[in-house]
């Protein structure tokens, strides 16, 4: 809910009018930090709702302390005229119940007309760096009162050769301003700009969905908790074509238990979890890299940043609790564009979680079953529009009762994930999406 941010009431009213109810992930992360007055570096894609993530705190600041005699109080730089126009529209929508005025200064427009616009002393100036510099050089752009500087799509501004213009404009704004820098990528190309324009920024990284390689097949297998689930894992490790595999569990206890079971069954396995010390961790990773072991059992924390070539199978023995965790796990395979398979084992109690992850990623996992190892659990009888199970009273014993029931309808193969979740994302990063038809029973 936007009300949680304690934004100015006129902004909340605008949000209500615009039917913005839930903040997107980038908004949930950036708005509170920006309201604290911190400098931020945000990695988020277009379509993630990032415009509101900087416009709302910026307007809140202008509304909280009126300064009728000051010059422009906020400067928003963008790489293209189209983006600048869109941003102006967003500003006007959010500022509709205020007296705050914004103006647009981009190339391809009459220079003098723009000069006249600037003389009206708008609180917010939105524009492209080249033309803004020309206006500055002509003495039309007072920047001495700027309190908030926004660099949106900073990576693109660099690509388009605007670095010098951006730095020059930033250098004209007061040093004690707040600066918010947004970019779609988190590469090192921005380092110099970040060092020059931001002060002790917090980095919010929100584009993980984009990290999934489209060469990775994403599948789900319905399972029954306990022996059946374990049998499916054993089958996969025995029969699935792979060079190296990583099996994720949600707990250390589960990781140790599975490791013991696999070793007892004759597999060469290493386990990685938070209780293992650095030496064990290094050894496990080295052995996996060398190919001395093919299978690693790991928890999320232990597998952070793991980069092993030819790791082509990821099994989610336990469904991860969050979309970002899923993305991280899947990112262990298919590195540098290589192909891979990610298989999640979904029991009765995991269905809704799995469906939330699908919505977050905006894709549908491919349903798969193993001949001779079908689960009693066939998926929910009915689905809500959200894709979650309808009317799920906890009746665990239902699973397995309907012998001979047909398997859940095979769903389409996973598509390439689109951009980061756009509108309406709840705080855990799960975005509602138009649903598929209920899976057939
Ligand atoms: P942006 O990434 O800022 O370009 O935003 C993408 C689109 O999502 C724009 O049309 C926004 O108006 C819309 N949008 C942003 N945040 C929300 C939200 N919390 N609820 C509904 N729509 C939103």
Descriptive labels:
Rossmann fold; hydrolase; 34% helix; DEAD/DEAH_box_helicase_dom; 441 residues; elongated; disordered C terminus; 7-stranded parallel β-sheet; alpha/beta; binds adenosine monophosphate; 14 helices
Structure description:
The chain has 14 helices and 14 strands. By secondary structure, it is α/β, with parallel strands linked by helices. It folds into two domains: 2-205, 3-Layer(aba) Sandwich (Rossmann fold); 216-368, Rossmann fold (3-Layer(aba) Sandwich), CATH 3.40.50.300. Strands 3-4-2-5-6-1-7 form a seven-stranded parallel β-sheet, with helices on both faces. It has a seven-stranded parallel β-sheet with strand order 10-11-9-12-13-8-14, with helices on both faces. Helix 2 (25-35) packs parallel to helix 3 (50-64) and helix 6 crosses helix 8. The site of adenosine monophosphate has 15 residues, from helix 3. Adenosine monophosphate is lined by residues 20, 22-24, 27, 46-52, 422-424.
CATH architecture label of the largest domain: 3-Layer(aba) Sandwich
CATH topology of the largest domain: Rossmann fold
| CATH level-4 homologous superfamily of the largest domain | P-loop containing nucleotide triphosphate hydrolases
Annotation field: number of helices: 14
Tally the beta strands: 14
Q: Identify the overall geometry.
A: elongated
Strand content: 5-15%
Low-confidence stretches: 397-441
Structural class: alpha/beta
Which cofactor or ligand species appear?
Answer: adenosine monophosphate
Alpha-carbon Rg, integer? 26 Å
Helix content: 25-40%
What is the CA-CA span between the terminal residues?
36 Å
Helix/strand order, N-terminal first: HHEHEHEHEHEHHEHEEHEHEHEEHEHE
CATH class of the largest domain: Alpha Beta
**What's the arrangement of strands in the largest beta sheet?**
3-4-2-5-6-1-7
């Amino acid at each position: 809910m936007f009300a949680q941010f304690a934004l100015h009431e006129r902004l909340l009213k605008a949000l209500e009018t615009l039917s913005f109810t839930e903040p997107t992930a980038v908004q949930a992360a950036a708005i509170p930090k920006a309201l604290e007055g911190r400098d931020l570096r945000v990695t988020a894609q277009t379509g993630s709702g990032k415009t509101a993530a900087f416009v709302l705190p910026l307007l809140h600041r202008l509304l909280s302390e009126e300064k009728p005699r000051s010059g422009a109080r906020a400067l928003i730089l963008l790489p293209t005229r189209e983006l600048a126009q869109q941003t102006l529209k967003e500003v006007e929508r959010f500022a509709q119940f205020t007296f705050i005025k914004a103006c647009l200064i981009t190339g391809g427009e009459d220079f003098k007309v723009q000069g006249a616009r600037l003389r009206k002393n708008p609180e917010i100036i939105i524009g492209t760096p080249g033309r803004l510099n020309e206006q500055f050089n002509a003495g039309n752009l007072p920047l001495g009162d700027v309190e908030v500087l926004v660099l949106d799509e900073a990576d693109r501004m660099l690509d388009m050769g605007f670095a010098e213009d951006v730095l020059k404009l930033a250098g004209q704004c007061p040093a004690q301003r707040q600066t918010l820098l947004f970019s779609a990528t988190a590469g090192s190309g921005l380092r110099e700009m970040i060092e020059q324009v931001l002060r002790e920024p917090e980095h919010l990284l929100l584009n993980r969905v984009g990290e999934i390689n489209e060469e990775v097949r994403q599948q789900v297998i319905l399972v029954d908790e306990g022996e059946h689930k374990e049998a499916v894992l054993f089958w996969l490790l025995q029969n699935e074509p792979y060079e190296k595999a990583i099996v994720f569990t949600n707990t250390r206890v589960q990781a140790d238990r599975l490791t013991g079971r696999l070793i007892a069954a004759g597999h060469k396995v290493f386990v990685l979890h938070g209780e293992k010390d650095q030496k064990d961790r290094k050894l496990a990773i080295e052995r996996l890299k060398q190919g001395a072991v093919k299978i690693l059992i790991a928890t999320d924390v232990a597998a952070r940043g793991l980069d092993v070539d030819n790791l082509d199978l990821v099994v989610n023995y336990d469904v991860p609790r969050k979309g970002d965790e899923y993305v991280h796990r899947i990112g262990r395979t298919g590195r540098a564009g290589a192909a891979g398979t990610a298989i999640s084992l979904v029991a009765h109690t995991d269905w809704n979680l799995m469906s939330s992850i699908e919505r977050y990623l905006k894709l549908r996992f491919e349903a798969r079953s193993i001949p001779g190892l079908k689960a009693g659990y066939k998926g929910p009888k009915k689905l809500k529009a959200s894709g979650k199970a309808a009317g799920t009273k906890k009746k665990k014993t239902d699973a397995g009762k309907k012998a001979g029931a047909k398997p859940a309808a095979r769903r389409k193969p996973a598509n390439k994930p689109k951009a980061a979740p756009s509108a309406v994302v709840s705080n855990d990063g799960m975005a509602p999406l138009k649903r598929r038809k209920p899976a057939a029973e």
